[in-house]
Structures are given as C-alpha cells and as structure tokens.
Amino acid sequence: MDEFQEILQDFLVESFELIEQLDQDLVELETRPDDLELLNRIFRVAHTVKGASSFLNFDVLTHLTHHMEDVLNRARHGELVISPNIMDVILESIDLMKALLNTIRDTSADSGIDVSGCVVRLDLCTKGYGDVEVPAAQPAAPKAAEKVIEEVVQEEVSSGDELDYDNMDADELEAEIERLLNERMAEDKAKRASKLSSSSASKEDEDDSEQEYEPIVNIPVAVTPARKPASMRDDSDSMDDARAAAPAKKQSTVEQTIRVDVKRLDHLMNLIGELVLAKNRLIKINDDVEERYEGESFLEELNQVVSIVSIVTTDLQIAVMKTRMLPIGKVFNKFPRMIRDLSRELNKKIELEIFGEDTELDKSIVEEIGDPLVHIIRNSCDHGIEIPAIRLEQGKSETGTIKLKAYNEGNQIVIQIDDDGKGLDVEMLKRKSLEKGLITEKEADNMSDKEAFGLIFKPGFSTAAVVTNVSGRGVGMDVVKTNIEKVNGIIDIDSEIGIGTSMKLKIPLTLAIIQALLVGVQEEHYAIPLASVLETVRISKDEVYTVEGRSVMRLREDVLSLVHIGDIFEVERILDSSEYAYVVVLGLGTSKLGLIVDTLVGQEEIVIKSLGEFLKGIDGIAGATIRGDGGVTLIVDVVAIMDMAKHVKSTALIDTTSDAAMLTHEKTKASDYTVMIVDDSKTDRTIMRKALEPLGVTLVEAGDGQEALAILKQGDYNFDAMLVDIEMPRMDGYSLATEIKKYNRYKNLPLIAVTSRTGKSDRMRGVESGMVEYITKPYSSDYLMSVVQRNINFRSEFLK
Amino acid sequence: MSDKLKQIIKKQTQKENENLDHADDVVQLVGFIIGDEEYAVPILSIQEIIKPFPWTRVPQVPKYIVGVFNMRGAVIPLIDLRTKFGLSPKKHNEDTRFIVMREGDDIAGFVIDRLTMAIRIKKSDIGPAPDTASGDDTAIDGVGKQADKIITILKVKKLLKRDF
C-alpha cells in the first residue's frame, strides 16, 4: 500500500507539472496548428498520463486520456486540422483531466466525474472532422504503443540483465516507448517527405545503435530516412534502438533538480536564522574582546575567523533564500489559456504578451499573488478592452493587447499589467462611489485622480453596468488589494481614457527577511517595514497642533495627522520625553500617517518570525524579529496601525502626571532615608559608608554606572540621594547622571559627584549632566555627611 | 531442590510484575510554588526550565501575558501564572524560573515563583478536581495527595490555550 502511495504521489506530481506546461502549449498550438514539435509535446503528455493511469488502475482517467490521445494523434499526422472548435473540446478534456487528477489527489480514486460527454465529443472530432480513412488509422498509434510495451515486458523477463529497464519505473518506461514511437513517426514522415537515402549515413547510424551509445540522438532526423518503416521492423531492431536511447535519455533528462519538501526548506531557513543571530553575537563579542585586549597577537586570528564565519553565514543565508525562489512564470503560465477562454466568452479579440517570466520570487509570495493577478486580468478583459467594433471605431486595432511584465526594481519586484482598453473614467468612478455611498460629496470633490483610481479597490464597488459571468460581482478588486497588502505589497494605478490602464504591483522579494526602520519609544523598540516609510522628520513640540481632538502637523504643503506610537501600543511613560520628537511618515497607497516616536535607532535587515498560535492576530503587530543582542523586537503592522490611529485618542506630548508622589514618602526614622553609593573602588565605598553610617540612613552600594542604573530600574528602594564617582568602567558618572535624568521619577533626585577630578571643565560637565554637588577627594567625613544631610533634607531630630 | 527453584522463579516473576504495575501506576510530575500553593505539571510536557532573562512586552494583551522572549531563535510567549491566578505581581528574584511547556505545536513559557521538586505519585493517589473547579473551564486536572500535603495538578493543554 505504501509503495502504491509513493508511486501515486510521483504520478500526481509529474502529471500536474505536465499539465501546467500543457495549457500554454495548447494555446500556442492554436496560432501555429502545424507545429509538429508542439503537437508531439502535447500528445506526449496525454500519452504519459494515460500510460501511468492505466498502470495505476484509474479507468476513467485512462478512458479520457485515451480518446484525447486519438484526436491529438490524428492531428499529429496531419489528418486533422486543429480548429478552434476542436480546441475547445481538447481544452475541455484537459480541464476534466485536471479535475480527475485533483480527485485522485484527494481521494486516491478517480470516480465521481462524468467524462462520457467529453469522450463523445472527442470521438466526434476524430471521426467527424477527420478524413475518410478514420477507422483504420485511428487506433494505430495506441496499439503500436501497447505492442511495444508487450515486447519490452517480454524482453525484460527473458534478458533482464542485459537491459537497464529494471531500473526504470513505469513512467520512464512509458516515456521511453514514447520516444521510440516519436522517433519512428518522425522517420515515417521524413521518409514520406523525401525518398532520398544516404547509405553511408544509415550505416553509421546502425553502427552507432549497435554500440549502444548515445550519438543517435545527435544525428538529425533527416539522415535516418534510410531506415525501414516502423511497422516492418523486427523485435531485435527495436530493442537496439531502445537500448541506444536509454542512456541518451538518461543523459539528456536526468534533471539537475531534486524535489524537496517545503517543510525541510523552512526548517533550513529557521536554522540559518539562528546561525545569523549567533553570528551577530559573535561579532559583538569580537568587538568587546578587541577593546579589552588591544594589541594582542591572537586578536588578528580571531578577527579572521569571525569575518570568515560572518561572510559564509551571509552567503549561506542568501543561498537558502534562493532555494525558496520560484520563477514567476509559474503563475503567468495559466494566463494565456485564461485570456483565450475569456476572449471567446466575451467575443473580444485579446492578445496577451508576457515579459520577464524568469523573474524570481519567494515561493510563499508566488502562491499569494496568483489570485489577485487573475482578478486584475479578468478585469482588464471584461472592463478594459472594448469589443472589436468599438475599437475599430476609435481607430485602434481590432485586437486588444494585455501586457504582463515582471521585473526587479531595487528590493522589490514589480508586476505590471497594461491594457490598451478604454481606461478608467475618473468622473464615472466618483459618481459610482457616490451612488453606492462609498464616499461623500466632499471627499469626491477633493479627490485627486490617483485617489479616484483607488476607488475600484473599495469593497462593494463594481464599474460594470452589466454584471457578467467574468467579473463585476463587486468582490474581486478589494480582495486583490487585501491579498497584495498581505504580502506587504502596494498597488499603483495609472490610466488615461481611451488609451488604457496600467497597474503596478510592487511586492517585496521575500516575506521572510525585510528591511526595517527601528524606532524607540521610551525603553521599547519597534520595527517598521521600510517599504511603508516615506520619510522621517524631526519636530519640536510646538509644531504639533490639535484639530478636533487630533494631533496634526504641517508637512510642507500638506497637513499630516499624527499619532504617538506610545498611545497605540499602550507604552508606559517612564522616561521624560525630550524637547524633540521624530515623526515617521507612513504611506500606504494614497493614505499617509505620521507616527511620533522618541528616537530613531536605524535601518536593519530583519528576519520575520511569527508570534505563534497563542499570540497571533494582535492588532498592530505583524510579527517579531530577533535582534543581534538576542532580544525580541516587535514588527509594526502598518495597515492595522493606519486603521487604529483613527480610534486612538491623542495624548499630550508632555506627560504631566509624573509620579513625584513616589519620592515624598513620610520619613519617620533615620533609616527611611536611602542613599546610593556608586564607586568602582571598594575602598572608596567603604570610606563613604563609614562617613555616613553615623547618620543611620540606609546605604546601597553599586560598583559602576550600569549596576546603579539596574538598581534604580528595579525600584526596590526610594532613593533620596546618590553619591557618584566619575571615573568608572562600563558607564562613567556623567553618562549615569544623564541616563538617570531621563526618568521622570528621578528627575529631582540629588546627584552628588565624589571625585578626584578637580578641573573646571570637569565641574562644568558635572553640572551639565545634572549633578547638584561636587565633592573632591580627599574630603573629611564631616563634610561629606553635611553635604548629604543638606541634600536629603535630613531632619535633625533623628540624629542620636 | 526443584521446588525451591520454582519458588524462587515464582517470586522473581511476581516481583517483576509488581515492578511493571508500579511503573504503570506512577505519574511523574514537576512541582512548583505560586503564591502559597504548590502546583505540578507532568514532567513530559516540560520542554525546559530556565532562569529568567529579558523579554519584550507585547501590547493589547491581557495583563498576565508579560510578553515574548527568544528561546534559541523561536519567539515564545511568556505568561505570568501569579497574575493569571489572580495574585498580585511580584518582582522576580533568584528563585524565579521560566518553565517552558509544550503540547503539540503549542508552546509557552510560564513564570513561577519557585521550583520544588520532581514528584512521583501513584495514579491512585490522584483525586479529581473539586466540584467547584471542575468542568471544561478549569485548568485543574486533579489533586495529588501526598503524605503531608496536597498538590494541584494543572492541565497543560488548558494553560497553553489562548483564552482572550
């Protein structure tokens, strides 16, 4: 059973791949009905599927493909001209074939689909439109094929060791036989065409085939006509041929690709992601080590290793990303067929031109953009391209053209759909939207052309006066927009009445890794996809105005509505906001929003991670990423933010409710007073402790600036003053003071510098960073005590 | 002689059976303290126990979800069981641990006050959840009775389920 499943899987994968190519070939065939190469290819598909399905006992599918094969075979022999009517039947049968294959995939059986109607029509094609000698000619090819199968099987049984058929599976065998058949057909044809025979060529040919080597494929078909017609060949001859072909086939079609489960690729991608993080950390550590052990000889070696690791990791990351890339042709392939069907259905003449189908995109995106493209192209056919009569009237060519282009532009891929139809009528769009209540009169008046084009993406909008089968049900275009936005893409429309419409879909190359702008608010960081960032502006607080309860600012000619990121993400205001703020101008299509942030951290390439099942669907958060320091940073969902901004109440930039209350606790005894001593020298700390102990106040010690800051952040104590040494490792006294002053809570905390630096400039820096006193070492303990007493408002009655 | 041998063999098989029964009947749990209560979860549902490290706050979620953290490249939600069980939040100290629990694809880290120990408890010593806390809604799987105390056994599946 398992083995069967395995074969079945292979069969399905192969069949779907074949069919994908088939649609395109068939449409092409219609324009070039006598292209033998093309016909052979199509025939081969029907035949391969038939052979494999009969082997797997899918009777319905075999039945259908068998009749398809008959029609195609006759066409191949020039006994049947492919007319559009016949093509319709063939296409119908291929659709049925697809449906059957889908059923097989889902249920492992091919029942439930009626093919008899189609089979009858196929037979009609073979009989009715072919020439007189139908009954005799019709079954010839399949019979021959079957005969060969028998022969091969027999041969295989009797002399298996001699041949490598053992190693072939059913499909390969089928293909093999197919090849033989084709070759013979070609020979027949060539023979009929030219009676010229070159004996030397034939001899050479035969020699080659006896030697069982591949050159046979290299010999042009034209030199083989000397051979006997296929029907008269004996077994051994055909076997020779087969043997000769076998290695050739191996050589030419052993594809340089293997199928890999997408899950494995995803797993690989995750591993690489971890490697990238590890690399980032390694670089950081390397920098630290470099600083500490400057001039050591091992540093250079370490540097080399780190840079090699970093280069290889980056390359590896790119390589793995590339394995997930698919040519966009995969999506484009189905459109020629679709256009053909549509043009017949709509009685229009439409031509599709495709450019850049080799452009590569991440697999997940390729999957997402298929449907939106279908909608857009249907729309162009239905509403864009006019019927031939009107086109002629307007002096255009009878046939409308739709151009489908894909190309890279920076970090994005652009898919452009151009039609030379009637174009979008701005006034009509506005009128329609007004009628349907999608916009107000006022909005309509203020609308630019671009904005008006955007109306077609509004839910509930449909421009077709008559609702057709093809489009115009009022869904569609807004789905297009949602889908494209889902992959962080944007849509740009340009149109001119009478000339045509051009739509550009701009999509990031990959979903997994994006460029982001990192911003800071209070102590938190957020990543904003750079694709949605138009610009950043630094503003001072008095540039923000309030209109109808909303913050706005003037940006050049426009008025930009503002929202604070802290209001959207409920960020606690611990730090004092500075004089200036930054506005990140977000743009999505035509709408704009200014997002106020405290700081801009920088631009970075980030790996998008999902927040998982438990936290999915949080408003305004699109995912998370892991930064170089191992921390998690959340990624902003720009689309959602734009929406949320409408409901968020603006709060004043200046936070008035600082918790000063925390600092004014009632002191009832000496130990209620708390003083922190920050000094890297244990001796100095002990000296200060000794000096202050007589006061009876609580003393907390910290070895450097960062430790001190950590203690402050923990909030376990309410400090009344801090004694700060200036020269300390990791974070010196000045930076510590600057950091402390950022907190609302500690704004008024007295900082006392205790240092041996006596220079004027040192004192000045101390004052600048917010120190209230400056004690120079050495000092008397009485002096220190009095300074501290003064600064903490120590009540003298506590003195023992 | 042969009787003796038989007896010994019989004894041995009996012992083996006993052992088997024993293994069958015992559940292994990991106990931890939240507030004043001791709780436990099956040892097999625990992926790892780690010391607290920095996490990132996530907006628009209930208070008991403190944020997300990075565990070797995976972004994992962090849930404070104190808050979830209606206790007042407490500063993390050196006893605080994150227990990462997994069930199928669902995974999350839980902040607990203190670990106690790995517990082996007989199935027969586990009673059902009290009536007041039974039903589909409860996170209590049962109550394990031990010599000197009782332990509340939690449903990992329920803990990992999003309920907002």
What can you see in these coordinates?
Helix content of chain A is 48%, strand content 18%. By secondary structure, chain A is α/β, with parallel strands linked by helices. Chain A has a six-stranded mixed β-sheet with strand order 10-14-15-13-12-11. Chain A has a five-stranded mixed β-sheet with strand order 2-4-5-7-6, with helices on one face. In chain A, strands 16-8-9-18-17 form a five-stranded mixed β-sheet. The longest helix of chain A is centred in the middle third of the chain and has 31 residues. Chain B is of the alpha+beta class and 164 residues long. In chain B, the strands form two sheets. In chain B, strands 8-1-2-11-10-9 form a six-stranded mixed β-sheet. Chain B has a five-stranded mixed β-sheet with strand order 3-6-7-5-4. Classes of the chains: A alpha/beta (800), B alpha+beta (164). Chains A and B meet through helix 12, helix 23, strand 17 and strand 18 of A and strand 4, strand 5 and strand 7 of B.
